[in-house]
Fold this protein.
Amino acid sequence: MSGSSTGTGEFTAQHVRWRWLLLGAVCGAAALLAFSPVGVAAVGAALTLLGIAVFTWRGRRIGAELASAGLGILVPSAVPTLLLLLSSL
């Protein structure tokens, strides 16, 4: 059964909700105008981890939506965060 994740608690790429990912990316880009990239990345990472936990333990639909939105927030904040952290070394 390689490649099959039906019935398991794994969050894989097939569970990503693309509309929520796009919504998270738009919100993340807007948040970068008002907040530090590190803070936006931290919120995105926390939301992603919360979504994966909810996906695994309780509700697959709401967990996938939370994780997708968190990943979307991480997309625009990843590069500025890395540049900021590397320049501080």
